[in-house]
Amino acid sequence: MRAKRWRKPGRSCSTTTLLEENNNNDQQDAGHRYAPPKPPEPPEPHDGAEQQLLQNLLAKSSRMDLRDSNYEKQKLCVDQLIQAFVSQSFPDPPADPDGSLGEHLTHVMEAVVHKLETHGPVISREESRILMDHCHRHTFTHLNTLLQRVNAPRNTFLLMNWVSHTYLGQEMLDNPDQRLLHEWETKAKVKLLESVQVHVWMFLLLNMFYTHFSGIHVRGSLGKVLEVDRAQTHHGEEAYVGLYVDIIQCIGAMTKAAGDISSELHTQVWEVCLRELLVLVRRYTEEQTEALAEETKTWLGNRGNLETIRFLKTLKTCKELRQHVQTGGKGLHTSLLKETVRTLENMEAFTLERLMEIVADMAEVPV
């Protein structure tokens, strides 16, 4: 991992000026505060020089007096300089975080640990706390940048999981400021739920319209399976189970990833998936109701060859989806769950009634 070049701080926050300022605060000339001559800009620090400069800044930060009239100005400058030292150890955000996020987060963790391991043994407890606070602040600033750049839900899950288990689980690190952590979690959760909704909707909708409306611009993913199901003309095992298996796998992947982070997020992701699934279920049942009614009418009209596969497939699909929703969504107190189950149950009942109607008519036909 290539280290960043040192970014020279602005003139108002010169390292040399800040470190010398305490010694000159009390010097006055003709009733005015003594102003030392402007020092030359510091050279780019390397290795030992860089470490010593950072340690001096940490020491100054730990000894600042709130009663000093220049406290706010000095603190701002010292914080900016410490942050500059911390940030130069971090890798730049990848151009395509969706393709290399895991490796990049490994480098981020290495940068934080290296900074603490390098300076921790030679600075005081208070100085170590200040350094750790700056590491936390820069890490979450960096994470916010990554959060804005990722697109796929799996990478938002990866970011949240990394923070919850890898970063916060690092023994060397104290817990970050709770406000900092809360702000990050809130932003990440909003981004995740939005991306899950779009992904699930696309998975459904693209399947639903894939054959007849392949050029349409859609926002989302569960509908694709419905059109694939509608276009199938063969009756093998894959065709028989394909629709509900694809849907269950899509929703299962999302909810499992959310559950690995927290039970609260698991519930929220389930609700998003249910909302989009209900849209699909309503459309699916409308189509099947029309198709099965037509099949029944055709049989009763001319008693031709009857393809029972559509009836059996519809029964199986509704049953499997209903059971998955009832099992996976157990504990969810939401009208979405009840409405989805009720719609699927009604479709099962309708399908069975039509099939029994045909069977009863077949029994009356003389051999």
What is the helix fraction of residues, given as a range?
over 70%
Counted by DSSP, the helix tally is: 12
Counting structural domains, the number is 2
CATH topology heading of the largest domain: Tetracycline Repressor, domain 2
Class based on secondary structure composition and strand pairing: mainly alpha
Largest sheet: 2 strands, antiparallel
How far apart the termini lie comes to: 82 Å
Task: Report the β-strand fraction as a percent range.
Answer: under 5%
CATH architecture heading of the largest domain: Orthogonal Bundle
Oligomer: single chain
Q: How are the strands of the biggest sheet laid out side by side? A: 1-2
CATH class (first level) name of the largest domain = Mainly Alpha
Element-level helix/strand string: HEEHHHHHHHHHHH
What is the residue-mean pLDDT, rounded to a whole number?
Answer: 76
- Give the low-pLDDT segments: 5-12, 15-46, 209-226
Number of beta strands: 2
Shape, per Cα inertia axes: rod-shaped
Brief rundown of the structure:
This protein has two domains: 11-176, no CATH class; 193-364, Tetracycline Repressor, domain 2 (Orthogonal Bundle).
Describe this structure in words.
There is one protein chain. A hairpin with a 2-residue loop joins strand 1 (28-29) and strand 2. The protein is mainly α and 367 residues long. The longest helix has 40 residues, at 263-302. Mean pLDDT is 76; it is low at 5-12, 15-46 and 209-226. The radius of gyration is 32 Å and the shape is rod-shaped. It starts with 14 loop residues before the first helix and ends with a helix. The protein folds into 2 domains: 11-176, no CATH class; 193-364, Tetracycline Repressor, domain 2. 71% of the residues lie in helices and 1% in strands. The chain has helices spanning 15-24, 47-62, 71-87, 97-119, 125-149, 153-167, 178-209, 224-231, 237-259, 263-302, 309-328, 335-364; strands spanning 28-29, 32-33.
